[in-house]
């Protein structure tokens, strides 16, 4: 499968997944709101399995498993024996970790929250007991999906989360029917309400994992257990996994400090739930662009590394950054322009939307650098180097930690969430610069001069495009206009602002004859032909 077709398939699945995910979140906001003690208690508990899932997905799986699966595919049995051993080992580890984490639910809530209300703390623990079992199914979903990606079967992993969203939507609707809307206070919550809300979230994760297992059979990959792990290269993978685990654990440690800081604002101000919803909006362009386009590139970069085709690898690094930059630059500008109406989609009042919008903008500052980091970091992984990413992640984590502590000591509660998000974005930019310098030292000149110049051109085009979108928001009445009168109006306003920004951006690229636009148009024409 070519890169264009693979990227399109992932993008289509990701778009459907993210849109249904946004709908899922809207229904959840209707049920419990985005600002308040109950939504923050649920947000902290439901984030626990997600946090560990990020360790697995971004750390061990991406950094270790994908390159190993690519190499194993060259074996006589196409790597089936290796995959059976890997699947068995992964299931055993994830099952054990999940059991321990569930038993430690109260300790984990203590670790990740700083609630000043004992009732809110107790409610979060109840949620955690039902949410933490998601961890096993998140882990297995990530393991199965990354293996399929490594074998160039990108569609199942991209499309399966839709099942999760549909199950969750149905469950949250049941919650609304049974218990009403806007249950954002901690008064009146009982075990049946906790079961329906948190149990629904867990059932959705189970459903998407079950669906993904069906594709293994269709792909001709035996789904069996094999405990004979000797000879599968655990020693080598263990060394790589040590560095990737340390890398991601640093991120988790920083995340704990961030969570402790943000939860102090819970109640009347934007806190954990609002931050998570802002991150969800941020992840829409990240997933649609960076993951959809970057994932096939990572597989090909791994192949170039395995075959020692270094010049082709360098060319793909530059090309992937330029392609990602073409889209991420305008995505950041458009969403920043639409930050307030976009936040209204996930808020029950205009005031809550105005409180959430700065958090979203602060995250978007790092969207373009994160696209560059995605490529650079995975190039290290393709070369079997997990130690260097650990080094530049230490720098990033340390900087986030210092800035977060400064924020906690100096920023008022109403601005805490936005300040913590900005600290993370600025640290990510520094991390990207260091990672690029270290990659150049490892594999020699990257030839990225033209790439950096292309990114600068994109930014220059995106600034007036974003201002045009912001002008549409002001023309609609701004904070008092129709775009903030409801969730649907917020969605329509965001779409109008985004469309305006994109059209202006494309027009400017055409006026100044940007070569990247010509390449993109030619690619679309060839695909249509």
Automatic annotation (TrEMBL):
It comes from the Bacteria. Keywords: Cell membrane, Cell shape, Membrane, Peptidoglycan synthesis, Transmembrane, Transmembrane helix. The keyword Transmembrane helix applies. It comes from Microbacterium murale. Its main location: membrane. The keyword Transmembrane applies. The chain crosses the membrane at residues 12-32, 52-70, 82-109, 121-145, 157-180, 192-216, 237-257, 277-299, 320-343, 355-376, 388-410, 416-439, 451-475, 487-512. This is Peptidoglycan lipid II flippase. It is found in: Cell membrane. Pfam families: MurJ. The lineage of its organism: Bacteria, Bacillati, Actinomycetota, Actinomycetes, Micrococcales. It is a multi-pass membrane protein. InterPro entries: Lipid_II_flippase_MurJ/MviN, MurJ.
């Amino acid at each position: 499968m070519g890169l264009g077709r693979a990227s399109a398939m992932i993008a289509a699945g990701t778009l459907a997944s993210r849109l249904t995910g946004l709908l899922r979140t809207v229904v959840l906001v209707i049920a419990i709101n985005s600002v308040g003690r109950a939504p923050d208690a649920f947000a902290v508990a439901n984030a626990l399995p997600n946090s560990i899932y990020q360790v697995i997905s971004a750390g061990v799986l991406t950094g270790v498993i994908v390159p190993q699966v690519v190499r194993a595919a060259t074996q006589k049995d196409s790597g089936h024996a290796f995959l059976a051993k890997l699947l068995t080992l992964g299931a055993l580890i994830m099952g054990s970790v999940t059991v321990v984490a569930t038993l430690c639910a109260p300790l984990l809530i203590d670790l990740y929250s700083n609630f000043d209300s004992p009732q809110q703390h107790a409610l979060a623990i109840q949620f955690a007991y039902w949410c933490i079992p998601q961890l096993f199914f998140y882990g297995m979903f990530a393991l199965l999906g990354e293996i399929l990606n490594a074998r160039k079967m990108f569609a199942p992993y991209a499309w399966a989360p839709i099942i999760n969203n549909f199950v969750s939507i149905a469950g949250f609707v049941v919650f609304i029917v049974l218990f009403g809307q806007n249950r954002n206070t901690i008064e009146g919550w009982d075990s049946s309400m906790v079961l329906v809300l948190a149990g629904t979230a867990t059932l959705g994760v189970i459903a998407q994992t079950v669906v993904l297992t069906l594709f293994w059979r269709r792909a001709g990959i035996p789904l069996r257990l094999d405990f004979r792990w000797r000879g599968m290269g655990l020693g080598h993978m263990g060394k790589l996994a040590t560095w990737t685990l340390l890398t991601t654990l640093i991120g988790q440690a920083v995340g704990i400090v961030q969570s402790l800081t943000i939860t102090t604002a819970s109640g009347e101000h934007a806190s954990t739930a609002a931050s998570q919803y802002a991150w969800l909006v941020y992840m829409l362009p990240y997933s649609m662009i960076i993951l959809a386009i970057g994932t096939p590139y990572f597989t090909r970069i791994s192949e170039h590394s395995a075959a020692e085709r270094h010049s082709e690898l360098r060319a793909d690094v530059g090309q992937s950054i330029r392609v990602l930059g073409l889209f991420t630059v305008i995505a950041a500008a458009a969403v920043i322009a639409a930050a307030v109406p976009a936040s209204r989609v996930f808020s029950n009042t205009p005031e809550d939307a105005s409180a959430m919008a700065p958090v979203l903008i602060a995250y978007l500052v790092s969207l373009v650098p994160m696209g560059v980091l995605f490529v650079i970091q995975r190039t290290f992984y393709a070369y079997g180097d997990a130690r260097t990413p650990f080094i530049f992640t230490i720098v990033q984590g340390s900087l986030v930690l210092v800035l977060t502590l400064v924020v906690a000591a100096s920023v008022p509660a109403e601005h805490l969430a936005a300040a913590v998000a900005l600290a993370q974005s600025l640290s990510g930019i520094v991390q990207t610069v260091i990672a690029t310098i270290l990659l150049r030292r490892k594999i020699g000149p990257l030839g990225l001069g033209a790439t950096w110049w292309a990114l600068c051109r994109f930014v220059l085009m995106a600034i007036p495009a974003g201002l045009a979108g912001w002008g549409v928001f002001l023309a609609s009445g701004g904070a008092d206009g129709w775009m903030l009168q409801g969730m649907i109006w917020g969605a329509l306003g965001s779409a109008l602002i985004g469309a305006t920004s994109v059209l202006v951006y494309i027009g400017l690229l055409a006026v100044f004859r940007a070569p990247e636009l010509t390449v993109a148009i030619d690619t679309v024409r060839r695909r249509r032909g």
